[in-house]
Amino acid sequence: MDNSEKYKAPALDKGLDIVEILATEGTSLTQGEIAKRLDRSVSEIFRMLVVLRRRGLIALDEQSDRYYLTTQLFELAHRIPVVKRLTVTAAPVMRQLAKDCNQSCHLAVRSEDSVVIVGQVDNPGNNVLSVRMGARIELWRTSSGRVILANSEPSEIDGTFVNVPHPDGVTTQQLRKELTEIAAKGHEQMESFVVKGVENISAPILGFDGFAAAALTIPYMGRFRGGVPIEDCLMFLLDAADAISVQLGGPSRAAS
Predict the structure, then answer these.
(1) Contact present, 56 and 72 (Cβ < 8 Å)
(2) Rounded to whole angstroms, how far apart are CA atoms 102 and 81?
(3) Burial 94-113 (b: 16+ CB within 10 A, else e)
(4) Are 140 and 146 in contact, with CB atoms under 8 Å apart?
(5) What's the structural domain count of the chain?
(6) Which residue ranges in the chain fall short of pLDDT 50?
(7) What pLDDT does residue 144 have?
(8) What's the distance, CA 139 to chain centroid?
């Protein structure tokens, strides 16, 4: 019997299952809907819902009797020193970047097989394209994920090919080629995986070890009037990523 079988906490498992299903659904659910999705009875999860509400991790809309996640988990995550330092350092740089380019920008970190948006700044104009704070996106479905992976340790890249296969069946050989090109250029520029007409430009934030700690991305929207050319936005983005990297103790792109 391994430790995973020896040490069990069924109640904790139920509570975490509820948190995960609410996060995955991305919307509120009734008690019955939660029970159905987890293949458990309503009575099984009732106590878990009470405890999670008491701890402030979930809340109940009294009008619709639907449960939803609060921001507490996100706030707890930001108490991790590395993430907190990253977001505090990046915030003023990102605000200036959004102003210079008249484009929104966001900051992402890797979390297992996904990236999580930990910073978001809207552009000052009337038309805004933004990514929800705390959003979790598949690693291969975002430029941020590809840029982070391209600038990761070789062993981490190898492990990703094994543990996080590409959802569209792209070969490892092709992916290695693409990641090598991204690392050589120092950024990625390509059409959005999600929104038509949007072109992502993304650059790595490097930590003290020279590997990616995060990615800074602009989902670039073309404008008929008053727009900043994407070539200029790329230069602003690279300078911003460089500034954040240096403040985190990472190498300067200009110096290299």
Answers:
(1) yes
(2) 31
(3) beebbebbbbbbbbbbbeee
(4) yes
(5) 2
(6) 1
(7) 93
(8) 9
